[in-house]
Amino acid sequence: MSAEEASPLRSASRVAPEDRLAIGISFGNSNSSIAYTFDDRVEVIANEDGDRQIPTVLSYVDGEEYYGQQAKNFLVRNPKNTVAYFKDLLGRDFAAIDPTYCHASAHPQEANGAVAFTIIDKAGEPVSGDSDETKPADPSTVPVHDIATRYLRRLVGSASDYLGRKVTSAVISVPSNFVDAQRQAIVKAADAANLEILQLISDPAAIAAAYTARIDAEANSSDTAGADQQKDKVLLVLDLGGTRSDATVLISSAGMATVLAAVHDYEFVGAALDKVLIDHFAKEFAKKNKGVDPRENARSLAKLRLEAEATKKALSLGTNASFSVESLADGIDFTSTINRVRYETLARPVFEGINRLAAEAVKKAGLDPLEIDVVLLSGGSAHTPRIAVNMSTLFGEHASVVAPSTVPSATNPSELQARGAALQANLVRDFDAEEIEQSAHSAVSTVQHTSLAVGVIATPLSVGADGETEVFTPIILAESAVPVRRAILLAGPKEGGDVLLRFAEGSTHVHTIAPPKKEAKTEADDNSDDEDDSDFDSDDDDEEEQRKKGWKVQGLLAEAALRGVKAGAKIEVAISIRADMAVSFTAREVGGKAAVRGSF
Ligand code: ATP
Ligand code: MG
């Protein structure tokens, strides 16, 4: 690592590109994951305990720090010195936080308006020289950003151990509604852990990136590359975690994603599914044991909670699961079973809430459910078969629902976010300090974005550009964070010859055409979150209705001619936009001599 000094904000964590080892991190309120992009694959790294979903929990026992699943297990015996669900408290005023999820662990407190925890994180002192007795150490008040620093240090430590080299840098994915202060707090916490943040990307963008990378890889290996990859796809990303559920509609095109709408929910979440089982088994226990309710005792409740989650996970795989806790309450052991049908009946209100969330996002995007191409389930709760079934019912006839229970080969939904972050880390790790400064800045303040898509209109010169139907192929999508570079492949002219490339800005539209009515009029799409496509006939029930995504050219930027392209050859066109928004392009015949470059 170079000892470069830099701006006060991230001084400790500026690393020269050649010294960088960059990973992707998904930093959840419930679980985190770390991933690395090797030359040919992305791998989600297991920590020392063998976990790839690492609970976002720290626990202190006799001055020893535990993290992940080991720390989570201490919620039963050492809740006061165990810190959980802290990530969503970062960058918030004490008065603004919802401490609900911290009831069963160290409680957040106010320290100068900020959030802190009072925990005993040091070893006790011997009472006297010749006695085995120790007196507990004094409690420390640890601000939440310190907790985050300690946790990130552990994550990075696990990644470094695995990779055999010190991890210096990371891309972290964060919820798309995280505000500046929250983003800043994460960067600051990482800084203190000596971790350079290359970029913060949004959770749905990371999820979509991991998904499209996989689809592209499959298309390449099955030789259907090109046209199909470049088709726009409307994705509904449902990210279902432990304490939040997010539904995001985005258009994915040539590897870039543009968000149309996002909705967030904190009620219909994984923890609510746990509660269904906690209540069910607590009642059963009470019935069998003279009304003793294990929820009334903190330790019993902690045991119930851990076992309920395990049972819930077992029900994602099997149709029956057991529930068993030693000494649940009053020293009484408890064993029971439940089947999936019963569970799904009990949990129906939660599942219905998730259905509504999905429908709401589509509505907010101004789309008809028919217009969704892919429903991509992500997050731990996405393993739940019932949720995938419900999505198939809502969208399934026209959309593919991607979840473990519907597509057995689907990427593990618990890993999508970290994989996407790792892909992004791989993409930006070679950026120099200035570009990183720009992109790190953009990640923590106003994001520097392209406002419109930038793409190309390619026409064979032989036919003359004028008479041809113009096809705008987007290369860099609207609202891409800069700096950015993208390349695409185009089919060259069948007979070969010269090709005119006109670079332009364009905007997209997704709309429904219901024949035999004439085509709906195309208007510029400003890609805003809550756009309302009221101009369009979306209430048409016609079975023949088609979905069409069109591009409209908003302005020509530059022209170039690629000379003497061989018959049937492919043309690679690449555009890069620098942090200062300067645009340059290259175009070349794949495997041939023709090439042209320029800037505008
Ligand atoms: P959040 O930030 O919303 O708290 P997260 O993003 O940190 O969550 P995830 O790992 O995506 O965490 O989701 C955690 C939730 O997923 C927990 O409620 C957990 O019980 C649940 N979960 C994990 N695996 C499964 C499974 N196999 N079946 C059902 N639920 C699961
Ligand atoms: Mg999450």
UniProtKB/TrEMBL annotation:
Locate the region Disordered: 511-550
* Record-annotated membrane-spanning stretches: none
Domain of life the protein comes from: Eukaryota
Compositional bias of kind Acidic residues: 525-544
Native organism is Sporothrix epigloea
Nucleotide-binding as UniProt keyword: yes
Q: Name one Pfam family in it.
A: HSP70
Q: Which InterPro entries match?
A: ATPase_NBD, Hsp_70_fam
Protein name per UniProt: Hsp70 protein that interacts with Zuo1p
Which controlled-vocabulary keywords does the entry list?
ATP-binding, Nucleotide-binding
